[in-house]
């Protein structure tokens, strides 16, 4: 049991260090990145439920869960994170702080739209507060795109 305790500390420290380096590449582990990752997870899970339980997916011909469609969904999520990484590096390169934020907000809106679509396919009503929040985020993203990060 003592050996487990002696190994546990360095393993946790190593995982923390790797996580810190990865978060640094993405511009820090801030509320925007956490929100995007949560939205991505919720979208993926609701997509699996739509296909696996309700058999109502628009991603397969039968509407049922397909391993290829699920894998493609994971690949798309990975590509989104790569675009966020590129946006962060662009911010660093040109000395700004808005490209990454605009990209993250745009992808958050996209993920929310997909979540709302999945909920609709399951017959779950969407509260008006969520649809209003999506509109606000859309406008904020468009404003940042047009004004170079200045509202």
UniProtKB/TrEMBL annotation:
Topology relative to the membrane: Multi-pass membrane protein
GO CC, alphabetical: membrane
InterPro entries (UniProt xref): Phage_holin_4_1
Membrane spanning residue stretches: 7-26, 32-54
Coiled coil residues, start to end: none
UniProt subcellular location: Membrane
Keyword field: Membrane, Transmembrane, Transmembrane helix
Stored Pfam families: Phage_holin_4_1
Annotated protein name in UniProt: Holin family protein
Species annotation: Eubacterium limosum
